[in-house]
Amino acid sequence: MAKITLFAQILSKLNKDVFKKIVHQKQTDKYQKGFNNWTHSISMLFCQFAKSQSVRDTSNGLRSATDNLNHLGIETAPSKSSISYQNKRRDWALFRDYYYELYSYLGQQAKFEQVKFRVKSKIFLLDSSTISLCLSLFDWAKYKTAKGAVKMYTLLDYDGNLPAYVNITNGKTADNKGAYDLPLIKRSVIVADRSYNDFHLLNIWESNHVFFVVRHKENLKYRTIKELDLPGNRGQHILKDEIIELHNEKYPKRLRRIAV
């Protein structure tokens, strides 16, 4: 029996028929000889999984897997010049559309044991990660004097534990500033940490009918309007539940403050 690599097993989860359908709609394989869209996508996925540092590494890595190329759905390993050429010229929107198709399909397959809330709204978890880069290789990603970096903002779908949206900025972008470009779904709930306690940002979310749960800063100035009854035996970790108003006008509406 032919040896099937772990990479090939991962690729077996991809729906190639859907990919072909999108390619047909966009006509992105028209006039392409040899290095088609599927080969390009496999090459880029291999680049990520193998942590390749260059198109040469990607090409050589695929070439070394000669016996398994059929399992990857490609006939021959592409040359580094072919990968480089298509990276510059092929329409990236094809891969974006395929990602969302996969997200819709695989999100239904994912089975995670999550805490069930009595909230019918869609819940998203928001956070960012700083990814260090070698400044000599990525001179455009200036972060510090001798260090490069980018910052990745991820909106995680709580139900499927899959990213619903990813925004990549330069490493110096403040956490709250990178959140302004997030797509907003009406009546959804965004859960974030203290870094996103930006009242201008919260106003935008509220005006788009988006709920939020955000930790407030220790120096928050407010006055209590009303104290709500605690849930008793169901939530003994809750110390206080109250309706508040801020002393400033950055967020004019009332907020609910919960201490745990």
Largest sheet: 6 strands, mixed
Helix content: 25-40%
Summed up, the helix count is 8
- Give the end-to-end Cα distance, rounded to a whole number of Å: 58 Å
SSE layout and pairing:
Layout lengths: L5 H6 L4 H11 L10 H13 L5 H9 L5 H4 L7 H10 L3 H17 L13 E11 L8 E3 L2 E11 L4 E9 L18 E4 L6 H9 L3 E4 L7 E6 L12 E7 L8 E5 L1
Parallel strand pairs: 1-5, 5-6
Antiparallel strand pairs: 1-3, 2-3, 3-4, 7-8, 8-9
Helix pairs in contact: 2-7, 3-4, 4-6
Describe this structure in words.
By secondary structure, the protein is an alpha+beta fold. The chain folds into 3 domains: 7-109, no CATH class; 119-215, Nucleotidyltransferase, domain 5, CATH 3.30.420.10; 217-260, no CATH class. Helix content is 30%, strand content 23%. The protein is built from 8 helices and 9 strands. The chain has helices spanning 6-11, 16-26, 37-49, 55-63, 69-72, 80-89, 93-109, 199-207; strands spanning 123-133, 142-144, 147-157, 162-170, 189-192, 211-214, 222-227, 240-246, 255-259. Strand 8 (240-246) and strand 9 form a beta hairpin. The protein is elongated and about 70 Å long.
